[in-house]
Specification:
Layout lengths: L9 H6 L4 E3 L7 E8 L10 E8 L5 E6 L4 E5 L3 E6 L2 E4 L2 E4 L5 H18 L5
Antiparallel strand pairs: 1-2, 2-3, 3-4, 4-7, 5-6, 7-8
């Protein structure tokens, strides 16, 4: 009998739903969380609909982790290997994201936010 481990960070992630946080002293960058439980499905096997985003002063999305639409998964240059709903945005580039847990999602999101802010010369 297979047992499913409880995702201990799930409550924390769900509590962030609707939250917006300014992430730099100048108030020019902010993050937004949208997270809701949904019935598990092939597209959303972990039972979550989520969008975690970093925006600049103009509201442009700089970073995003979400599962709102499918993205092609590529192996090599041309060979397609299906679709992934979990993915991440870095400016205009989209790549599949391997969702493992709510805690890992939050860690990966904040690491990407910090890297982008550092690259833009933003002091946090």
């Amino acid at each position: 009998m297979k047992t499913h481990e409880r995702d201990h960070g799930l409550d924390t992630l769900l509590e962030l739903d609707g939250q917006v946080f300014v992430v730099d002293p100048a108030g020019k960058h902010w993050v937004k969380f949208r997270v809701t439980k949904v019935p598990a499905s092939p597209e959303k096997p972990h039972g979550l609909d989520y969008s975690l985003t970093l925006h600049d002063e103009n509201g442009e999305r700089l970073v995003g982790f979400d599962n709102a639409h499918a993205v092609p998964v590529r192996k090599g240059r041309a060979q397609k290997k299906g679709k992934s709903y979990d993915h991440r945005h870095h400016l205009r580039h989209i790549k599949p994201y391997a969702y493992k847990s709510a805690v890992k999602l939050l860690q990966d999101f904040w690491a990407e936010v910090e890297a982008v802010l550092k690259k833009r010369g933003v002091k946090t």
